[in-house]
Amino acid sequence: MIVWLNGTHGAGKTTTSEFVQQLLPDARVLDAEKVGEVLMDIKPGLPATDNFQHWKPWRPLVVETARRVLEYTGGTLVMPMTVLVESYWREISGGLTEHGIPIHHFVLHADQTTLRERIQNDKDLGPSTFRFAYLEPYAEAAHTWLHKEAEVIDTTHITADQAAQQIADSVLDRRERGTSGILDAW
């Protein structure tokens, strides 16, 4: 199965994914950004874009990478990755579902003030215009489709390990109830 952690920059996806991995049996973290990095390393480069997700190969490569890793290892893949374009999410989630891979989709959410403070004060990356640029697209996606497609975990006033515990509890509860987590729309 896949536990997909969505949400914009500063919501806590990467940190939370590490805690989720520790809480779920046979879990591994697969960061789909690494697929984008492979595409960015192609020389000469692919057509210019401000986001590797716009490159058509990225989405099916994410599906195929996740499928092959799960085929090889079994267990659970925890995938922290922002996907704010609904058609891109549909392509990825549809591809995974076609392969019979259950998806537990979570959105880590925080209010705009908190997100701005986290991005501004990030000790590793520092303030980032790239990350700030995604706050409005996230708000739009959250309002129009994203929060309807996933279980929302508000990280505004909780730590990453507390968010991870909520996610793990939800996933394990679904397993006990025997629900797959595959998106109902598919």
> How many strands, which pairing sense, and closed or not: the largest β-sheet?
5 strands, parallel
CATH topology: Rossmann fold
**What is the total domain count?**
1
Helix share, percent:
40-55%
Which overall shape is indicated by the principal axes computed on the Cα atoms? globular
Question: What's the Cα radius of gyration?
Answer: 16 Å
CATH architecture term: 3-Layer(aba) Sandwich
Organism: Cryobacterium lyxosi
InterPro entries: P-loop_NTPase
Pfam family, one: AAA_33
Keywords: ATP-binding, Nucleotide-binding
Tell me what the structure shows:
By secondary structure, the chain is of the alpha/beta class. It has a single domain, classed as 3-Layer(aba) Sandwich (Rossmann fold), CATH 3.40.50. It is 51% helix and 13% strand. It contains 8 helices and 5 strands. A 5-stranded parallel beta sheet has the order 2-3-1-4-5, with helices on both faces. The longest helix is centred in the last third of the chain and has 18 residues. The protein is globular and about 45 Å long. The chain starts with a strand and ends in a 9-residue tail after the last helix. The C terminus is likely disordered.
